[in-house]
Design a protein that fits this description.
The chain is α+β, with helices and mostly antiparallel strands and 245 residues long. Helix content is 28%, strand content 28%. It starts with 6 loop residues before the first helix and ends in an 8-residue tail after the last helix.
Length: 245
């Protein structure tokens, strides 16, 4: 999380650098979110998004939906309600050119995911009324989108992103380590994007709807699956409150 409000963040705030101003926020249909799959804790959601550090930015170009994976910072400083997602797109990426004053964007932050087999449930042997499922964690943000082409705005964003990801390294790299003219050229090759967050919808589907025996069976099954996804989902399942018996 970004602490306080730095000089960079002050320059990243709303101002004349905005390429296009967002209009009113149009109501969007809520993501399908059964109560038992809603994320439990806002602090955990914030930590999850900060840890992933990237999102699929989805907009409509007038003909079809378009999406780009972009690095993001969830700026929660100041008094801006739910805050803002800050990121950037390549100048050559046509997605930003279709952003207009009424554009409302969707940003999707993906976490781990894994297939869950019914063969892992003890209830399968008892009654057979079970089906496969897919466990995952994700956060959806919606809100009006603004594109920034001001070089200083983009420079400040790149500085914040770099500082975040270089923090804790023995020899962190700084933007100022590269030749200034080289950096200027790189900055001209990207545009900034700012999503003013209207909704945050966090979902963690981790077998909360199964009883204690089935959840334990799924956990054991995931522990024996190859790959990072099943292991990560199993770790998250272990943090859940006890299942019903």
């Amino acid at each position: 999380m970004i602490q306080g409000r730095s000089k960079c963040q002050a320059r990243l705030g709303p101002g004349p650098s905005a390429y296009r101003r967002p209009g009113p926020v149009h109501k969007l249909t809520d993501v399908y979110l059964p109560k038992h799959f809603a994320a439990r804790d806002r602090a955990a959601v914030e930590a999850f998004v900060d840890g992933v550090g990237a999102a699929d930015l989805v907009t409509f170009d007038g003909t079809k939906p378009v999406a780009s994976l972009i690095p993001i910072i969830w700026d929660r400083s100041g008094d801006a309600g739910r805050g803002r997602l800050l990121g950037h797109l390549a100048l050559q990426n046509p997605q930003w050119r279709s952003v207009g004053p009424d554009t409302v964007a969707l940003a999707i932050v993906h976490g781990p995911q894994a297939y869950v087999s019914p063969s892992w449930y003890p209830s399968t042997a008892r009654h057979g009324r079970v089906v496969p499922t897919w466990n995952y964690v994700s956060v959806h943000f919606t809100g009006p989108l603004t594109v920034h082409r001001d070089t200083e705005w983009v420079r400040d964003l790149v500085g914040l992103l770099t500082a975040k990801h270089e923090a804790g390294r023995l020899a962190p790299w700084h933007v100022s380590d590269a030749p200034r003219d080289f950096i200027e050229g790189q900055l001209r090759a990207i545009v900034g994007v700012e999503l003013a967050i209207a909704t945050v919808e966090a979902k963690e589907k981790l077998s909360q709807n199964r009883d204690a025996e089935d959840r334990a069976g799924a956990l054991d099954g995931l522990r024996h699956e190859p790959g990072a996804g099943p292991a990560a989902i199993a770790n998250l399942m272990e943090t859940l409150p006890p299942a019903r018996r």
